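Two records follow; treat each independently.
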Amino acid sequence: MIEQDLPLQNLNTLRLVSSARLFSRFSDAAQLLSLQQRAEDEQLPLRVLGGGSNVLMPECVDALVVQNESARIREVSRDDMNCLVDVDAGMNWHEWVKKSIEYGHGLENLALIPGTVGASPIQNIGAYGVEAGEFIESVSGYQLSTRQLRTLSASECRFGYRDSVFKRELHQDFVILRVRFRLARQFSPVLSYSPLDALNRSTLTPENLISTVCEVRSSKLPDPKVTPNAGSYFKNPLVTKEWASSLKETFPAIPQYSHSDGIKLAAGWMIEQCGFKGKKVGPVAMYEKQALVLTAENNATLADVQALQKQVQTQVFDKFGVWLEPEPQVFG
């Protein structure tokens, strides 16, 4: 069923006021092809919406917005080292993480991240020293421009820090239908980030690790069902070692973390140093417990969010010489 002028306020976790010209859900490739044809008949772009946790909704989305509701999990194969598992794009990410330990390990640190499995490769979601791309074997989907089903290997996905080919060459041209994960049979937790580094590795279980991650995230991040938000709003910027050393000389307390692409800085710390923690501007604010999180009140708009975003970016740049990039992107 295709609906007209459907409100999207309850389909994005910031609950920004928005509506879609046309909206429909699908559960397989055949339905998706039919929806693509309808979009072309209406001379509208086709846009895919996942869990709405990493998007900024404009007041009017002039498109046919579609949402995948398929959420199957299928074991492909296993050996002594790994287990391959196919997961449909419509599966809730946190539910998949909890279920994943029945097949293997590696995703435990990514518990309680909002959104769907289909969105995880796009953003290459990460937390506490782990990125989803490390455990993705391949991504299967439908390319709109060629009308072909394709499977991309992990290398073809070109995963980077909060980045992938799906945000670049295949942006708005590839509908992810399924993600294949390679999970390790042996539990070998990554405990390099605080406060996980205080856990006892010898007695830790996968269930305990997931529970701890959930407790930590809940203590720092607001529940989007209670307080509208999109999780961490800004990326932690990556800089060269030389730049990081220079910043350390000027700001000795600045947190820094080693990364394969350079040194990662703590955006939340820099935002807090600029006085934005808990600061409210109209119906939006930087969260009082974690300055990296932007929260909104009901009836906030994209313009409200972007106004606060620009203030934060400008003041952080003036103080630290670093321009922060938002994680959520404008939808449409």
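The next record belongs to a different protein.
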Amino acid sequence: MKKTVRIGSRGSALAMYQTNFVKATLEKQFPDYEITIEIIKTEGDIDRNSPLASFEGRGAFVKSIENALLKNDVDIAVHSLKDLPSELPEGLTLGAVPDRTDVRDVLATADGSSLMDLPAGSIVGTGSERREKQAASLRPDLEYKGIRGNVGTRIGKIGEGYDAVMLAAAGLKRLGLEDKIGSYFDVTEIVPAPCQGAIGIECRSDDSETLEMLAAIEITDMRVCVDIERTFIATLGMGCHTPVGAYALPEDGKYRFNYYVLMDENKAATKGSILVDAENAADAVSDLALDIRNDDNL
């Protein structure tokens, strides 16, 4: 009898792309397993109007799926890792990071204009305060307006109340919508969200058989980088929809860590980059986060 692995996922086009990617990866590695998908509606799917930052506590797109995991209704959950809060519920763990694509933020416009090309007063849509605040530091003369909906819905609003929309490159590329990208933001210009572009697989922490299975599809370098980013936000103690950017990447045997934090709207943001040794990367970014959190000038 085949072992069955039940995957919990949202039903959006992007979520299904990521879940089918994980399903195909597992089927290739474990051809004797039967991999099934269970669609689960989350708070963020049900309430499509409230700003994402208004969802208190657990992430808007993960709580219902985590509850299914804890109740043993599914065996693993596939997430856009940037949606997964740094502190997981007791009994759950991040089992694997099997993929990470382009981490950059992009601007989608009707004519391919960049942020700097837009006429003063243009309306730019984004559901991310992190993107808005960093973009506003580059172009304070533009109007930034909240936007909700899946990737296709947001793209469709260009010319319908919005002159441009800010999105993650990863989502557009995974959905075959790369031609909608007008321009890319360098990661030092607009620091990406922690774990942006990464797929995360969550499972029960006491499920040793599933953890062993997921280890076979883990990509080690990607996991190290997202762990650095998640350590930073966990130490800051801020939610997943607050204005924080964190991006780690390998550089000459070490890790380059880019960061952006706005602790208080009435104070200046802090932004920068440090190079950390592989063996003490977690301690280094934790110390950085503590310094930022404790700095009364921020």
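Discussion point: The longest strand covers residues 92-100. How would you locate this feature using only the token line?
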